[in-house]
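Section 3.1 - Work completed
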Amino acid sequence: MVTLVLPRLVSFEGAGRRSASVVERNAASLRTAYWLVLISGFLEPVLYLFSIGVGVGALVGDLTLPDGRIIGYAAFVAPAMLASSAMTGALSETTFNFFGKMKFMKLYDGMLATPVRPIEIALGELAWAMIRGNLYAAAFLVVMVLMDLTTPPRALAAFAAAVLVGFAFGGAGMALSTYMRSWQDFDLIASAQFALFLFSGTFVPAQAYPWILRWLVEATPLYRSVDLIRAISTGGVGWVQAADVVYLLAVFAIGLTIAGRRMEKLLCK
């Protein structure tokens, strides 16, 4: 069904059409096991929300945000789970899967025999990663609304923010993957991803850390993502969130530029 409908939705020509062809190829090659991976990726943040946000939250009680607003612990944790879910969905496709296609399957060598260019492959793979990340984000936001952790209008705005988060981490993940030499190198990415998950204001406010650690935390892309989505979902948007958007756009632009140039160097040498 996807392979029948998608070409009609992207019937334009040029670079956009060629990038869409990469998405079509990925959709056509889906296997049953892939859907199981998708489901597990959705369940992970939901389980964290119930175990820590709701379970531990019963012991923690309410939290006071830096702007003085008081919210429940589950409402504090849920936006962080959404940001982490968007990050995980984007990185899963643009790191392991992207590296395997480029390094071992030699999939892109065949694509370059056609009019498709390296940057168009990067854009197509990034768009494919966004589909996975957006599915996670949309499903998780439904859970948040059902649990009365945010309102439907704020959930729609938070979804747009989650898309931006996915683009930022997708671009960064693809750029980093072009420097990987073997599967073992991905242990570094996994370790960094886990550290970001734990220390990006996910479970405790960054203000609880010593000032030097707080400075490091607030400079990370996941913290800026959590700050943006938390402000939207709890109704506390201000100028700081405008800086968050600029920050994430910069991460996306730099990551995609590096990925495109590195792919051209690696595949067209």
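Second construct:
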Amino acid sequence: MLIIFPGRRGPQRVMAGLFAVVVAGLVIVEGLDGPTLPAKIGIVAGGLSAVAVVLLAEARPSAVAVAAAVSVAVSAACVLVPAMRPEHTFGIVEFAALSVAVIRLVMQHPITRAAGPAALTILAIGLLPVRVFLHPVNVRTLSQDGGLVAAVLAAWVLFVALLGLYLRLLERRRVDADRLARQSERLDHARDLHDYVAHHVTAIVAQTQAIRFVTGSGAAPSPADLDALLAGIEKAGVQALTSMRTLVGILRDETPAAVPGTLEEMLTAVAGTLPPGYPAPDVSLDESLALRPLPAATLDAAHHTVLEALTNVLRHTTGTTRIDIVIRAHPDRKGLAEVSVRNDGRPASSPLPAGGFGLTGLSERVRAAGGEFSAGPVASGWQVSAILPVTGPASDDRRRGRR
């Protein structure tokens, strides 16, 4: 496949095609400088084969080796047959095309695979000027400046090889950066999917378990209690669908969703998501932080810390009578805020899959915001904590704090 066509359309293809025609025309013009028909054919064949290799989408080692072999053969013929030596040009286009071929070869292939064809191509480049300098008219020039010419050629091929290696390094760094960016994006999406959808689905499961527990005990719930439980399931289902729709919308068009602007707004949105039967969280919010503009990543991490802690209350505890959400300025570390959620529930088995990614994803999110994360049992239950910076560069990036 030719490099001038993939990814190009309309005028770009026309311009690329015209460029290829012009380059081929220059090769033919240079070939006409040959003193004999075999010399003309040899110079044109060497030039066109080198140009063809450059036009390939991939500098295949075999193709580069063939072009280099053709060039070396023509140069050798010029050395052995005086009648074939051109007077004015040795093939400038061929020289340039072979140089580009070496650079692309080193860029696109492992050194072990590119070394042989690259060495042959460098030899071809080094022999090209010999075609002209052995012409009787130019022999004197060669005898006078042969050392300089050799030095320039050596410097040129060294430059070509090093340039290829440098561009190869840049290409590898670009590929690594792309892979890391894709991995980060996948993790980001996975965290969002877990945090928003899992919370509401867990609420549905918890309320369904409550209904089964009541009916299983033989004491049928009153119509009012049953209606309240079903209303809770309905609400959690609607919230799950809304979160899923929002997440899909973001994945489709990268449109940022609404995001709470302050900690107070965030807590108002999150604290009321627990279903009936669970205690309303006791919220303590430092007044100095309540309405303060925070970095988007900090607000997002605080939001997810509270949300994940409440999800774990639904999922992993029983007999919970108290949930404390505390957000305060860190007493010992200036410029930091401490977000903690503690519950007094007892560990409980859950029908939901164990070994989830909630705390792992939350830890990644907090660290990405420049904070510290911890979670574990305390004297009277379980606590999830995050220490987050309250200052940072102003950012319009809503990706981190988009909901």
